[in-house]
Amino acid sequence: MQIAYLFVCLLECSRTRPAEGAVEDGKVEEKKRNHPGSFVDDSPCQDKKCFELTLAQRGRSQAPLGSHIWERMKPTEMTQDGGGVPVGKRLRFQRPYASVPQFTNSPTMIVMVGLPARGKTYISKKLTRYLNWIGVTTKVFNVGQYRRDATRAYNSFEFFKPDNAEAMKIRKACAIAALKDVWEYFTSEQGQVVVFDATNTTPQRRELILSFAKENSYKVFFVESICDDPEIIAENIKQVKLSSPDYIDCDKDEAVADFLKRIECYKLTYVALDDNKDRNLSYIKIFNVGSRYLVNHVQDHIQSRIVYYLMNIHVTPRSIYLCRHGESELNLVGRIGGDSGLSARGAKFASALQTYVRKQSISELKVWTSHMKRTIQTAEALGVAYEQWKALNEIDAGVCEEMSYEEIQENYPEEFALRDQDKYRYRYPKGESYEDLVQRLEPVIMELERQENVLVICHQAVMRCLLAYFLDKSAVELPYLKCPLHTVLKLTPVAYGCKVESVFLNIEAVNTHRDKPENVDVDREPEEALETVPAHI
Amino acid sequence: MSDRAWPDNPPCPPSSVAVCMTNCPTLIVTVGLPARGKTYISKKLTRYLNWIGVPTREFNVGQYRRECVKIYKSFEFFRPDNEEGLEIRRQCASAALNDVRQYLAEGGGQVAVFDATNTTRERRETIIEFAEQNGLKVFFVESVCEDPDVIQENIVQVKLGSPDYTNCNTEEAVEDFMKRIKCYENSYQTLDEVLDRELSYIKIMDVGQRYLVNRVLDHIQSRIVYYLMNIHITPRSIYLCRHGESELNVKGRIGGDSGLTARGKEFAKKLAHFIRAQGISRLKVWTSQMKRTIQTAEALSVPYEQWKVLNEIDAGVCEEMMYEEIQDHYPLEFALRDQDKYRYRYPKGESYEDLVQRLEPVIMELERQENVLVICHQAVMRCLLAYFLDKTAEELPYLKCPLHTVLKLTPVAYGCKVESIGLNVDAVNTHREKPEVRTTTR
User: Alpha-carbon distance A338 to A166, whole Å?
Assistant: First the structure.
């Protein structure tokens, strides 16, 4: 049904929209004038640092308009803010209204709540790793660390007794120092999310944080971990407390006894988030390591993603095996991309992989591949059921598909150089960037978190992205992680991180790793561009 | 699925299935007093699951009751001491469960949504036993709400138009319905944190203000929880349109990344006027990362967000070709596409099925947001529209999404009202109907 358009009236369309969650209209102008904690900094940025900072920002890919030539931006042009969108999150090609999809418009503080040994630091670190990987700049502030720096030597649980006035003063001062650093991080380092890792077990302490956040227009999301299973708590203490700097000179039993007394100190004043009194706060309560959750008043996209992530992680022991397909025909001749089959040596690797997997005798192993021949052929040799994920396909090299590096240098020397300048964000013409890959792989990571033992047979760029997630590698390191053919990486979560075992299955293969060359200028000589290309037929 | 053997290698195994979402079928069971949004949630969830490729069907016990009792007299039918009424209701529940069993076992279903009040532990026990007997996983969705305004609004939106009240005036209907709710209240046993701690469920409180989630067992339950936690019922509108007419459009070529024609630019300007005239509060504008949508958005002079996942379907080797050229160079592919346009994947490109998977985060975010204008492309718009209007995989690739036309979608009752607004700027027609002859030898 067509409705003829009538030119009725022109409504004023406000050109500068206040950020979502910003204070009332009257205060918007004030907010823009470099108020501490203000997310919009409209002072012109004259120095190179600003540009570099933004380049290092892990925002989503931009679309250069008109061509796929990488933009060369002058720093001063980047700071005109037209739409209340933070400087670093806008796209770099001079369109003041354009931006990447916004997870959130205000800085967010995630505040942990819970008795000691409830997994707060585990959750803090894991969540931070995930958020940074998907491109949200996040940092953990652990108040216990501040306390250790302030008091030098830990004596005993007596420090934590609620009637120890002097200690209370120190602990409060540490919290405030940490909050000050949080402000610094949001203001000068353009951070987007902070995880405030401390017990925060009293309403007073939480009020302190809420006032601080309100003053600075930060959003607050609480994550409370409640656990009364003594086995889980004992396991926690064993895994992460015994090796803590606090207990360096103690024997195991002493340490455990002292720590349990420490927990008792907190229990005296612990007030959990209350369903009634705290109904206006945004929070998630995690019961007994995830068997139950209570979610209250989720405000925006990033909080929704955080809740989804927290509801999918678990602590059941398991291992994740990452490897590439066996050597392919195109690998042999030094060509990238394409969809070729395995070479003779690649087929040998597939059998060796089958032997290796059988020897590991992993219970209920899931096997995942991409939709490309070479991973499928590798999985076929295992003789077990496997699932194909299109999201695991190798990075799309667009116009450079199936070219050798020498051909890319010959046909697209400028593109080749631009890629070396910023391998993470560079997008092949009609292809993808590593940054795009990370976005496409996010559901894979989410499902890996849900699962237990999994073997992922994938590709070089894909494996780099997955590895960067598990090993907390930055966007700068990610594209240069070494993922050689015919090598299986076994990742086992342990304490706050991941143990990696690298197992080379003894079948020779070409090297496909190309390091960053010395000279990355667009006007470099071909030899300089090709100096790090690995040997091939 | 067409059998496309690769030239020199053995064909890919036929088990080319995306991630297996569920191993055994799932029975979602709603719980809650009347007018708490159970049917709204059931229908919406069913629509979402079907769209992402999980065959789902809802079974509304009230429907069975209407078929059995034919004429609804009054709330007295629901009185807890009405033995005859109770017997009929029990039978209806059984009949519905029987149909559930058939759908999941033989009908190709993976998820069944059992939509009824299920307010007593006894009734829920019956369902759990049924599920155990039939190898089904059970997931409860309870909606708890005490806000009289919300309940009133529910009644007005969906109860007054119900077949039960066709011959009543508004006041009579509301009064009767309130008494009906009362009948349930006394025997209502909400899911209990302690007594029901072994069950898998989500309790939605006050239309999404708060959620209690217990024992999520697998991937599909996790996705369901995520979805339910992102939907809301705040009134709003979603505007879908394509970019203005592009250079390649005029040449009859598909894909590519060309700019707007003069007419396309005119559309962009008219779109700006239209949007301003609508006077929408806090409108978000989304585009893809292709020139033509960006140029269209630029004319609006408001902030907009660029989503790579909103890019047009990748036609692989057929990018920037005309349909005549595709017929010339790839006649086999062209025919295969006409045989199954939803699942067909262009060589080195994508299928509509791939598109749906890539667009799922967009849908999730659209559910979270309020007023949004999405400037996208033909195939992408078809996928989004199919989600809102509950179109099947067969219909989806042939939905009409002409250039220079804005579709305004407003959620109402259990569905979506669509207004199609042509902005009076001429453009080529890019819609290709399913041809009569689709064999590969045509």
Answer: 67
